[in-house]
Design brief:
It is a single chain. With about 325 residues, the protein is an alpha/beta fold. It has 2 domains: about 50 residues; about 250 residues, Alpha-Beta Complex (2-enoyl-CoA Hydratase, Chain A, domain 1), CATH 3.90.226. Helices cover about 50% and strands about 15% of the residues. Helix 4 crosses helix 13, helix 6 runs parallel beside helix 8 and helix 10 crosses helix 11.
Length: about 325
């Protein structure tokens, strides 16, 4: 187990600890306990299957927020090579909450952009807990246009609770920066692959989320509002967040069914934090396949398809029901 556990993981963690203690005792006392350990390992696998095969939307939200879940820089180090980070919006400052840079996936050159959270309090304060300021979005679109100039595809990793909500961000044009990105990304003439790797919170996510192929990791979530925010509005209490998570339909299977995302990338049993390498391998395969499928589409057709894709989201029509047998 990699990292601290969530409430529903506690039985698993306790059994894992018991197995580790048995192994330590067996090695220290030179006693053969393989049969006993094997029985506990079978019990552990069944317990994992029982718990993780029936996760609620709220439990998936908790996994998406797991403090040991891999972040953008982790995936860059495992999937990409020759990474060169690029900084600054050329207007105000650099924003550490958004990582940008040139890299390669095997021999494919890309521009990688992603939200970045911190592992401890100091780093989280430095990176605003993954909540970008306006300069982060302006940095991102500046470099997307640079990628367009050199015909380099763009990959973005989404993992934010939302854009930074402070007064200083509003003073520097937070809403305008996000809106500008939406317009400019819609018109970018190079392929854009978007992956929701953890939290996908509202406009903070969408500010780097307009793309040709939208993927989600299995236990990520993507929503116009957090479950807690929705609960505070509808029920006047954040304790109803689990009910809000269920009603919002924010998990990958639901969003795949609605056509809002195009692909769900599988995670190891229990979540990405349990096996970084397996998650990275699955994500790399998805990125390579997606980029290969998009690279030969003419730029005008690419832009039109992207526009049509986002225009279809939320479309509905009224249908007049047929009259009943008595004419009413």
């Amino acid at each position: 187990m990699n990292g601290s556990g969530l409430d529903f993981e506690k039985p698993i963690i306790e059994l894992e600890q018991k197995i580790a203690d048995l192994r330590h005792f067996s090695e220290g006392r030179k006693i053969d306990l393989r049969d006993e350990i094997g029985k506990f390992e079978k019990k552990l696998e069944k317990l994992k299957q029982d718990i993780f095969s029936s996760l609620t939307p709220w439990q998936k939200v908790q996994i998406a927020r797991h403090p040991k879940r891999p972040y953008t820089l982790d995936y860059i180090s495992m999937i990409m090579t020759d990474f060169i980070e690029l900084h600054g919006d050329q207007l105000f400052r650099d924003d550490p909450a958004i990582i940008c840079g040139l890299a390669k996936i095997d021999e494919q050159k890309i521009l990688i952009i992603g939200h970045q959270k911190g592992r401890d309090t100091k780093e989280n304060l430095y990176r605003s807990f993954g909540s970008p300021h306006p300069e982060g979005y302006r940095k991102a679109i500046r470099l997307m246009k640079l990628a367009e100039r050199f015909n380099v595809p763009v990959v973005t990793f989404i993992d934010t609770p939302g854009a930074y909500p402070g007064m200083d961000a509003e003073e520097r044009g937070q809403a305008e920066a996000i809106a500008y990105n939406l317009r400019e990304m819609a018109q970018l003439t190079v392929p854009i692959v978007v992956v929701v790797i953890g939290e996908g919170g509202s406009g903070g996510a969408l500010g780097i989320g307009v793309g040709d192929w939208i993927c989600m990791l299995e236990n990520a979530y993507y929503s116009v509002i957090s479950p807690e925010g929705c609960a505070a509005i509808l029920w006047r209490s954040r304790v109803h967040a689990p009910e809000a998570a269920e009603a919002l339909k924010i998990t990958a299977p639901d969003l795949l069914k609605f056509g809002i995302v195009d692909e769900m990338v599988p995670e190891p049993l229990g979540g990405a934090h349990r096996d970084y390498k397996q998650t990275a391998a699955a994500l790399k395969a998805t990125l390579k396949k997606s980029l290969a499928a998009l690279k030969d589409i003419p730029s005008a057709e690419l832009v039109q398809k992207r526009y049509d894709k986002f225009r279809r989201i939320g479309l509905w029509e009224e249908v007049t029901p047929p009259p009943t047998s008595n004419g009413q």
